[in-house]
């Protein structure tokens, strides 16, 4: 597969989400509102963490990076999904399809690594509180974010180098509303059984392994805290419940999309929408509504903005 891609296919045709005009308008309004919520919610978290000195801690530094990744992951598909709603022939060029797949998996890989980093941060804060600031210092936080990006790029490249050189010479209809490795591989003019296994092993097994690792780590934290007191257990569970909810929301669709080989089109669309639209807009709500410090900081920031406007 080291040869230069000799594809004759220069563009792919994507399947639409709706065919009736009424449903198209409904989805346009729904996805536009959700995407606006994704942009405003995640950028508000980032700006609050940046401008509020009370939130200059490892947990909120990682949370701000997670919000940026949620925004980036959603932006790889949602804007095009909205613009394609009223397009009869939903065509994407070969190069744009490859770029979309690459950045989807970069962002997805970074998010997986960041969720692990956030689990490690919570373990250190809850189980080793006296050493928390020593372990989770600024250098460690920067290292964790850089490592997350390196992991995300490696995760994407390890699949991309195989797919970019596949020969595409026949069918060009992608059975989804966006390009992704499992769907595009099926269109290659060769036996792709081994490549399908590579994608399942890379995206599916890594997602499944990371998901179970995170759940086990949260259970371990709760069991460790339980040995101290029931009061500490309730506080720890309240703190971790937001993280557990985010992990389930992110990984559940991934497990169906990559571990369950080629689900039905309707299920494929549903789980993809959950991953790209629903989860990125729920994450800011989950972390703000269940976090007293974030709510106080947002009210403080809002008052500062209002007062600055009154002065001007």
Please characterize this protein's 3D structure.
The protein is an all-alpha fold and 312 residues long. Helices cover 75% and strands 3% of the residues. It contains 11 helices and 3 strands. It has helices spanning 21-51, 58-75, 78-83, 94-127, 132-135, 138-163, 181-185, 193-226, 230-259, 265-289, 292-311, and strands at 11-14, 91-93, 173-174. It starts with 10 loop residues before the first strand and ends with a helix. The mean pLDDT is 85.
Distance between the termini: 63 Å
Number of helices: 11
Fraction of residues in helices? Answer: over 70%
The tally of beta strands, per DSSP, is 3
Low-confidence stretches: none
Q: Please state the oligomeric state of the protein chains shown.
A: single chain
Mean pLDDT: 85
- In terms of DSSP E residues, the strand content is under 5%
Record the strand order, biggest sheet: 2-1-3
The largest pleated sheet is described as:
3 strands, mixed
Structural class comes to: mainly alpha
Rg result: 21 Å
What's the overall geometry?
Answer: globular
Pfam families: 7tm_4
Membrane topology: Multi-pass membrane protein
Transmembrane segments: 25-51, 58-78, 98-120, 141-164, 205-225, 237-258, 270-289
InterPro entries: GPCR_Rhodpsn, GPCR_Rhodpsn_7TM, Olfact_rcpt, Olfactory_Receptors
Summarize this structure as a short list of keywords or feature phrases.
312 residues; mainly alpha; 3-stranded mixed beta sheet; globular
């Amino acid at each position: 597969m080291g040869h230069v891609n000799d594809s004759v296919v220069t563009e792919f045709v994507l399947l639409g989400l709706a065919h009736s005009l009424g449903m198209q308008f409904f989805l346009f309004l729904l996805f536009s509102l959700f995407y606006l919520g994704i942009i405003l919610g995640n950028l508000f978290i980032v700006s609050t963490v940046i401008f509020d000195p009370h939130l200059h801690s490892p947990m909120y530094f990682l949370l701000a990076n997670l919000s940026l990744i949620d925004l980036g992951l959603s932006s790889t598909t949602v804007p095009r999904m909205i613009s394609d709603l009223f397009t009869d022939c939903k065509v994407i060029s070969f190069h744009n399809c490859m770029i979309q797949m690459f950045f989807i998996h970069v962002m997805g890989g970074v998010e997986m690594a960041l969720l692990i980093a956030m689990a490690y941060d919570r373990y250190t804060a809850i189980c080793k509180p006296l050493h928390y600031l020593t372990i989770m210092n600024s250098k460690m936080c920067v290292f964790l974010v850089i490592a997350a990006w390196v992991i995300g790029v490696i995760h994407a490249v390890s699949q991309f180098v195989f797919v970019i050189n596949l020969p595409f010479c026949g069918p060009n209809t992608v059975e989804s509303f966006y390009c992704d490795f499992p769907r595009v591989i099926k269109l290659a003019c060769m036996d792709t059984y081994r490549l399908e296994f590579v994608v399942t092993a890379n995206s599916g097994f890594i997602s499944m392994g990371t998901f179970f690792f995170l759940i086990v780590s949260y259970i371990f934290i709760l069991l460790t805290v339980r040995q101290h007191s029931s009061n500490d257990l309730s506080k720890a569970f309240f703190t971790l419940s937001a993280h557990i909810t985010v992990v389930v929301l992110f990984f559940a669709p991934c497990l169906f999309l990559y571990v369950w080989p080629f689900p039905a089109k309707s299920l494929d669309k549903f789980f993809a929408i959950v991953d790209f639209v629903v989860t990125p807009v729920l994450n800011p709500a989950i972390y703000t509504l269940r976090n007293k410090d974030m709510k106080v900081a947002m009210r403080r920031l809002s008052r500062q903005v209002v007062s600055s406007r009154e002065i001007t």
